[in-house]
Design goal:
InterPro entries: NAD(P)-bd_dom_sf, Sc_DH/Rdtase_CS, SDR_fam. By secondary structure, this protein is α/β, with parallel strands linked by helices. The protein is built from 9 helices and 7 strands; from the N terminus they run H-E-H-E-H-E-H-E-H-E-H-E-H-H-H-E. Helix 2 (about 50-60) crosses helix 9, helix 4 (about 110-125) runs parallel beside helix 5 (about 145-175) and helix 5 runs parallel beside helix 6. The structure holds nicotinamide-adenine-dinucleotide.
Length: about 300
């Protein structure tokens, strides 16, 4: 009961209007940034950054969207909320056009990922933009990290991203192309301190180079593969780490030139740019959104 209440509280916070929205008529912007008419899919989207990416797509005109996550109930709940959000905020769309679905999938299982794509293709008939956001982090020193947990982390963060990208490309190539964004991390480029997380850092470096390698394989087939690397953002993932060590947030903020953690909404512009036609000559690239963490 308490959990359900907490979930509802979280949900109403997530359904808040975007801080970039106002009641004034929308300002003119480049049409190439529009997600109108694109079928999108985001893994790990029942909450956290994945959910925020979905909100950004909806705010940019997307009406066909698959929310992929571990539990059907949570994916469906997020889909229902975003449907309400889309009908209220995507003023250009006919409310009947909004078709947002929740899809259960464990990205660490190739079969489960294939089943998710089959569901998406049978619903929409095509797929234009895919974001692989599902991922986990754990903090153990190298000597203490149990091997089964290391393996699970790589199964989700590395193999999950690979399965998600490969099935995306299998479906996108016959239709003429599409955009894939793999969510890595600033940890692909630097070593976080003070918390130990070697397998996580290595997994994100692998995701970054995976994107470059897949980008080369599929460049002439119309499929672009780019990377979004966030710095410290306030989501359930980081809140769990901080719950064990409240002082840690101050350390992270001190190490970040902008002096604060990011709001998940700070990634909205970058994800729409990478997923839309605005980045059509860009593949194998990384965008870091980290408050300047990596430059010092
Ligand atoms: N939050 C940050 O500060 C931060 C920084 C850099 C990178 N990232 C990366 O961004 C991504 C999203 O992180 P977040 O902060 O939103 O995390 P989060 O824990 O808030 O959300 C992750 C989501 O992924 C889902 N998920 C986990 N394992 C899955 C699996 N096997 N199959 C399908 N779904 C699964 C969870 O159910 C959850 O909904 C991760 O890849 C993470 O490494 C996060």
């Amino acid at each position: 009961m308490a959990t359900r209440f907490a979930t509802r509280q979280l949900r109403s916070a997530l359904c808040r209007p975007s801080r970039f929205m106002s009641t004034a008529p929308p300002p003119k912007t480049l049409p190439s940034f529009s997600m109108q008419g694109k079928v999108c899919m985001v893994t790990g989207a029942a909450r956290g950054l994945g959910y925020e990416f979905c909100r950004a797509f909806v705010s940019s005109g997307c009406t066909s969207l698959a929310i992929v996550d571990l539990k059907q109930e949570e994916a469906a709940a997020a889909a229902a909320e975003l449907t309400t959000y889309a009908r209220a905020n995507n003023t250009d769309a006919n409310p009947e056009e909004v078709n947002i679905i929740g899809v259960e999938c464990d990205v660490s299982s190739e079969k489960s990922v294939q089943k998710a794509y089959a569901d998406v293709m049978s619903t929409y008939g095509r797929i234009d933009s895919v974001v692989a956001s599902a991922g986990i982090v754990e903090n153990y020193s190298a000597f203490d990290y149990p091997f089964d947990r290391i393996k699970r982390l790589y199964d989700i963060n590395v193999h999950g991203a690979f399965f998600t990208a490969r099935e995306a490309a299998r479906n996108m190539i016959p239709q003429g192309g599409g955009s894939i964004v793999l969510v890595a991390s600033m940890s692909a480029n630097i070593v976080n301190i003070p918390q130990p997380q070697t397998p996580y850092n290595a997994s994100k470096a692998a995701v970054k180079h995976m994107a470059s390698s897949l980008a080369v394989e599929w460049a002439k087939k119309g499929v672009r593969v780019n990377v979004l690397s966030p710095g410290y953002m306030l989501t359930k993932l980081t809140k769990t780490v901080l719950s064990h060590d409240p002082e840690l947030q101050k350390t992270w903020e001190r190490l970040t030139p902008m002096g604060k953690m990011g709001d998940p909404e700070d990634l909205a512009g970058a994800i729409v740019f990478l997923s839309s036609d605005a980045s059509s000559f860009m593949t194998g690239s990384e965008i870091r959104v980290d408050g300047g963490y990596c430059i010092i």
